[in-house]
Amino acid sequence: MNKPLLAALTSLAITGIGAAPVVAAPQAKAVTVSYAGTVSLSNCSGSVVRLPGSADSDPALVLSNGHCLETGFPAPGQVITGQSSSRTFGLLNSAGTKVATLRANQVVYSTMTDTDVTIYRLTSTYAQIKSAYGISALTLNDSHPVAGTAIKVVSGYWKRTYSCNVDGFVYRLKEGSWTWKDSLRYTSACDTIGGTSGSPVIDTATGKVIAVNNTGNEDGGRCTDNNPCEVDQSGNVTVRQGINYAEETYQIPACFTTGNTLNLNAAGCTLPRP
């Protein structure tokens, strides 16, 4: 995993072979991607996000990694919902300057099974954040990303942005005890490091979040901690030392209903359940 910072102090970076990549269609002129809406955690990165159907009056959500959860890594097969939290986040403006401290009151959803995400509910609404600080949330895209897409990985912790492309997708990405499905692989220019865990992966053509940064193969190890491996549908294993990965987020919107309320039984919701 692109380790939380504590682990990263001793070793930098955690951040497949699946179906043949789809060639990206010609894209519109890229939008300006900045730090606005990203957040810094005590040991990771994240972002204030909204769903396509979110209302300005809804409690805002923060997206990060499952392995950034303040109570420790969720175990394989574990799904956490509705857990009380008072975690704080440093809200950044477009220049990367901290302009506010936001606070959570709940871990809405967290898991490291099939994906690697934690979603927090804040005590502030989107409208309150916009009114007080002039910052809008990033929007989660609700369709599968496309190979070749130009992206930026924006780390609120390090105030650093990585630019590259979607190289392809991984049928299964295995790291130690965890397995992630349909992971997104970066081209080599996104050489993310520890502390970048949880950073939003932003499509530069739309400005929308398509994934959350989570891991990379540091030392060339095979399927071990900090050295994920790619496994195809036939069970063949590929190791790509120095290559980093993210977990797609397009499936998240289908699992939320009015008021940014989690409903894992909603039609089309495929996130793992407790």
Q: Short summary of the structure?
A:
By secondary structure, the protein is mainly beta. It has helices at residues 5-8, 126-133, and strands spanning 38-40, 45-50, 59-64, 79-84, 88-92, 98-111, 117-125, 138-139, 150-155, 160-175, 178-186, 200-203, 209-216, 229-231, 237-238, 244-248, 256-257, 261-262. The relative contact order is 0.24.
Essential attributes:
mainly beta, six-stranded antiparallel barrel, single chain, Thrombin, subunit H, 274 residues, 4% helix
Q: Would you spell out the secondary-structure blueprint of this structure?
A:
Blueprint: H1 5-8, E1 38-40, E2 45-50, E3 59-64, E4 79-84, E5 88-92, E6 98-111, E7 117-125, H2 126-133, E8 138-139, E9 150-155, E10 160-175, E11 178-186, E12 200-203, E13 209-216, E14 229-231, E15 237-238, E16 244-248, E17 256-257, E18 261-262
Parallel strand pairs: 2-8
Antiparallel strand pairs: 1-2, 1-5, 2-3, 3-7, 4-6, 5-6, 6-7, 9-10, 9-12, 10-11, 10-14, 11-16, 12-13, 13-16, 14-15, 17-18
Describe the protein in words:
With 274 residues, the chain is mainly beta. It has two domains: 5-32 and 141-248, Trypsin-like serine proteases (Thrombin, subunit H, Beta Barrel); 38-140, Thrombin, subunit H. It is built from two helices and 18 strands. It has helices at residues 5-8, 126-133, and strands at 38-40, 45-50, 59-64, 79-84, 88-92, 98-111, 117-125, 138-139, 150-155, 160-175, 178-186, 200-203, 209-216, 229-231, 237-238, 244-248, 256-257, 261-262. The protein has a six-stranded antiparallel barrel. A hairpin with a 5-residue loop joins strand 12 (200-203) and strand 13 (209-216). The chain is globular. 50% of the residues are buried. The model is unreliable at 6-27 (pLDDT under 50).
